[in-house]
Each structure stands twice: as C-alpha cells, then as structure tokens.
Give the backbone structure.
Amino acid sequence: MEWGLREDLRDCVVAAAPYGGPIALLRNSRRDKTPGARPLLEIYSASGLLLASVPWKSGSLVHLGWTAGEDLLCIQEDGTVLVYNIFCEFQRHFSMGNEVLQNRVLEAQVFHTEFGTGVAILTGALRFSLATNIEDLKLRRLPEVPGLQKPPPCWAVLAQDRVTMVLLAMGQELFLLDNTSCSVLVRPSGTGCTRPRSRQRAVVLAWERQLMVVGHASESIRFVLDEDSFLVPELDGVRILSRSSHEFLHEIPAPNPCCPVPAEASQEIFRIASMAPGALLLEAQKEYEKESQKADEYLREIREQQLLPEAVGQCIEAAGYEHEPDTQKSLLRAASFGKCFLDKFPPEGFVRMCQDLRVLNAVRDYQIGIPLTFTQYKQLTIEVLLDRLVLRRLYPLAIRISEFLRLPEMQGVSRILAHWACYKVQQKDKSDEEVAQAINQKLGDAAGISYSDIATRAYDCGRAELAIKVGWWPGGGDAGWHCHPRVTPPSPPGQLLEYEPRSGEQVPLLLKMKRSKLALGKAIESGDTDLVYTVVLHLKNELNRGSFFMTLQNQPVALSLYRQFCRHQERETLKDLYNQDDNHQELGNLHVLGGYSQRVSGRIEGRVAALQSALDEFYKAKNDFAAKATEEQIKLLRLQRHLQEELDKPYLDLSLHDTVATLILDGHHKRAEQLYRDFRIPDKRYWWLKINALATRGDWEEMEKFSKSKKSPIGYLPFVEVAVKHHNRYEAKKYTPRVGPEQRVRALVLVGCVGDTRGTPRGGGTSSGELEQAAEAALERRSEAELGLVLARCEPGPGGDGLAERLGRARAQLLRK
C-alpha cells in the first residue's frame, strides 16, 4: 500500500467500495480529542494512492459507505447524509427525517439491492429505520425488537425477493425484522454464506490480529495478521486491508469429478504431482521451449486419452484466475501450443480470454488501482468498468480499452470523449480559449457526441462564454493526451454549440444562457415551427412589448408564425402588430373577423360598428372593392334587422341572395323587387332566384305572370327545367313554344320524360307526342347531337317503321357527310 498510514485502522472510520473500488478514510476521528483538531477525510485507490482529501468540517460522523456508482455517503449523528464524489467534491445532502434527528444515529450501514443503494440506521431509541433507495428516499421504520436495552453487538441488512430485512444478534438468539414483524430464529439453519461456484458455507472473522475462516465442519483455517486489518466483502472473496498491504482471500474449490467447475482448473493444474490434462499440457509446452523430447511424451499421453481439448480449456480457464502476468502468459502459451494439434477447436474462448486479461492487467496496475478478479470483471461488465475509469478521469486508458475491444463509438470512444469534454470545461485554471481549443481538437466530428451537454456543463459552471467560444486556433495541444492516437483534422472557427446538429438541443440551452435572439435564428433555420413558437413565447415573456415587436420585425418567419398564433389566441395583440406596420388591409380584415367571431342575436350594433371600422381601414388601404363590399354588407345588415323586426322572422346572417329568396317564398314580392334594385342584383341572377323560389312555393300563376312581364334575360328553358324539377309537366309544356330553336329539342325531351302532376306519370318512358315534336325539330335542324339525344329516349318500333329507325337512318346520313 502506498498510503503511508501511521494510525491504526481501528482508530479511523474506513469504507471500501466493492469490485476493487476506492477506500475512504476519516483520520483522527476517535482517538484525537484535541480542541480545534479537524479530522481529515481522504480517498485512496485500492493500491493506496491518494485521490483526494478534504478537512472534515461537518458534524459528528457515524458511518462511511459507498453507493453502486462510487459516490461516498457520510452518515452523521444528526441523520444528515452528505454525498461526495470520488475526488471529495461535495455533491448534495439529504436528511433521514425529524425522528432520526431527535433520537440521533447510533449505528448505520450502507447496503445495495436491486432498487439501488440503501441506508439502514439504528437510532438512540434502539429502533431500526431504512431506505432502500437514496435516489427516491422513502424512510421505513421497522418493528421494535423486544427486550433490546442496548445496541446489538452485530446486525446486518438482508435483501431477498424484493424484501429488505434486518438480521441482528442479541445474546444467543437471532432476530429477523421485516416490514411488519420481528421474528426470533432460535435455531438458524445456517451461519454463513455461499459464494458463487462454492460448495461450502463459510464466514471470515478478524479480531486481535487474527483471521479465521469458519464453516459447518469442526475444522477452521487460522491466519496470523501482522497488523490491524479491515475486511471488505467481495463477490468471490474477502479483501484484507492493513497499513502496509492489501490482500485478497478467496476459495479454490476442491476437485469434484461429478461436478467440474471452471475455477477448479487452477487447482487441477498446479496441484503437486497433478496428472490433469492441463498440467501435462503445461509441462509439455515448457519442455518444448527447452527443445526436449519429453514434450512429445507428455503430448502423446494427453492425445492417447483424447483429453487434449479439455487440457486446452483448463489452461485457458486457469489463466483467467491467475493474477501474475507471467503465470497467465505461461498458461496461455500452453493453450496455444495445444491448439496446434487440434483440428476444430473454436478460437473464440482463447481470444476472449486474452482480451479480458489485457484489460484486467491494465486496471490492476498500482497506478490505476482497480484490483478486479476475473469473476468480478464478468459480473461488473466492460461498460461499467469503462464508467469507473471515466469516473476516475482515466480517459486515455478508457479510450485505449474501447479501441482494443473494438466497441461501437457510441458506447466507447465518443461517450468517453464527451465525458472528458464535460470535465474539461470545469477546469478553472485554464482560460476559455485553451479549453475550447482542446475540446475542438480532440472531439472534431466524432459520432454521437452531444455538444449541447458539454455547453450546458460549461454554463452550469459559470462559463457562459465558453459555451459559444471560437472553436479552433492552430498550434494548440493538450498535455496528458498524447497517448491517444486519434488524429482529428482542425475544425473551422465556430461555436461549441455550432457542432450540435440537433436544433432541439441547441435552442433550449441558448434560451437558458439568455441568448434568445441567437436561439430564434437557430429555431428558424431548423424549420421546426414548434421550436420557433417556443422561442417566440419566451421572448414575449422576457422582453418589453416594444423590443419584442422590433425583434420580430427582423425575423419575417417568426413574425408570420406569431401572427398566426395571435389570430387564434390574442386578437388585440395582432391589432397592435398591424398598427405598428400601418397594415390597414389586414386591420380591416381583422375587424371583419372580429365582427363575425360571435353570433349576434337581436342587436347588431357591435357587428355594424366592427364593419364600420373595417370600412375605414379599407379606405385607408385604398381597397375600393373591399370598401364597397363592406359598405353594402352594413346596408344589408340594417335592412335585415328592419325586416326581422317588421315581419317577425329571422333574416339576420342571411346572404343577399338568401334574403331575396326568402322574401319571395314568403310572398313579399315588392320587398324582393326593392332589394333587387337597391343592391343592383344582375338581371339573370334575379330571374333565376325568383323562378326557383316561385316553383318551390308552387306559385305557378305568379311564375307565368313573371315570365310575361318582360323578355326573359335567361331564356325560357330554365322555366321548363324548374317545372320539370318539381314534376309539373303541365306547366313545363306552357313554356316549350317560347323556347328558342337551339334549345327546343332539349325542352321537348325534358317535358316528355316527366310525369304530370295533374295526370298519370309515365314512369321511366317518354311521352310520344313531345318525342315526335323533338324528333321533327332535330331533323329540321339536322343536328347530330340533338338526334342522338332524342334517339336515347325512344325505343325501336315494330317492322322497322319506328321513330328510332328513322332517327337512326338520319343520323347515319349526317355522319357519312
């Protein structure tokens, strides 16, 4: 150990993180009672290298523990828990509640479950409380232990089937506390624990410089310790810390032919006088290097027993459980030697073991200080190991491992570079220019890096200018990164955020940095209207009204979108925008929409007033058509109000045509004539309106009088069509003679196809009289189209003398010509 510790560990508060994690040490906390003396909180790597230290200025410390993410939890006597990172940088704090504050904390433990990292405490009232996840703190008070008068000598937290319990010893009895009850275990079924791939239950005890491994059997293993030691339980063994050493005690399972396990390979190979296939293959390889013929003898013995594949597998597996690189190399050379004599041995296991051992040896180096075993490494996974290297700011090593294992950039190099950049922006001793230069040189166009996260971290650290700093200066560099072989071409000058391709990430950060105008430009460039609306509404709340409008004037796209928003949500604001631009046309349109936004019943003064305002704006805009139309609408509204009051019938909100038609339907012909003259309705339109209304009303006599009042501007075919539409053949026949020659055939066909309201309908057939007349008229006009129209309505007659045959012959003659 490199820490040079002078105090005994018993005089310090010690906590070591699992999986070869760091060691936290609070010195002078128990023995030194000098007034004013401050304990020193130190964090070391597993090899004893100091990572960070800080004087302890807070309250009385009860317990230290590590989270699964390697954050240090410092539990104080008043129930406050302080959280530090691996470099003694304060992160946050939380409290265990008022009850704990009143009763104080006597003892505490940090434990890990599938829910996360939890904290269990024993208060001065001798009651246990625990929280299973400090990220979602929910304190749970456990039942009282009967007869408990003082803190128990030993207790532990157990987690099983998503239930967290406390096991404690008091005298000769064990108590188990769960959520609802306290159970007494008089005869416990076991006093130890079973490790993975182990067939024996055992516990490890240490006291007074002695260490004992105790199991079910009467035998035990005793070790004499040279110094006071601290035990750290691991997945597959126990770490033993002392002032001068850091050792690892773990089980090597005994051979069992009925149930072989990979971890037995080491014992099978290195056992004295072992004749295992792996041991023989290892000896054969050593003799081969000596150029001895014994190599062939050993190899032949293995091959005769057909155990060469097993021998190669044993050497590969045994290499994983050895910590000395020389032994690893010897075993792997033996495995490689044996593979040469096998035809179909899969190479994946050998290659994977070589890769794993290179990674393990790299992190086991004392300067790195993560002494993982092979079992722990497989349980931890490579992704978590990279996270822990990043947490220790060992970025070059993490990148080399990622490249060596050929991990995808999103999981490896790019992710590590992003973490490095976030750390780089926190370095207060470097200028913004130096940091921006280093980041841009190293990151370049690396895939999957969120520059917005880097800029956010810079802004959170109080370096807003760094987030938008110029990106490249020639000739720069970053000491300490030379080991990374990645070469990135220099980036053009720009801003850190300019490298972020996602506008949805750029814009919120720019708003947070109070760069609203720049954010507006980025949002418009993205083409995302929702993003533009977000920035515009933010600007509206941030700026005064005048500045806000002036900002929008310089951004036509944003101004247009804001106008659309105001058209639906804030009409008054839209008026202000149009007034500012002297846009009288749009103001007039807005007054018209405002006048008709709500239905008016009874009084229409508000609508008329809105239209009058619109009329004034249209005149200012020099839009004569809109002004004239608005003026006539005002006139129509007033007339409709007068008609509604006089005739007691709803006329408001009808169009001019509907108003005229309604008056005719109600028999008010003179009023309809007055509207026709006042609003200068075109003659053709008025005649169409009147004949349709009279036909709907069934006033055929008035319709006949109207047809004779003067020459029809629309002709007389419409009279026939209206009558036919209402199934009145009799009235339709009245107007047939008055129809012009060019439309008479069509009129006769229409009359012949309808049943008479005064006679018997003809069903789907055609009246023969009208059809004969239509045929004569078509023959007289010698029109192929009219002949075809009549021919489609008649049926061939018997003997070939029918009307259809005559029309057919005449049509054929016309077609020949």
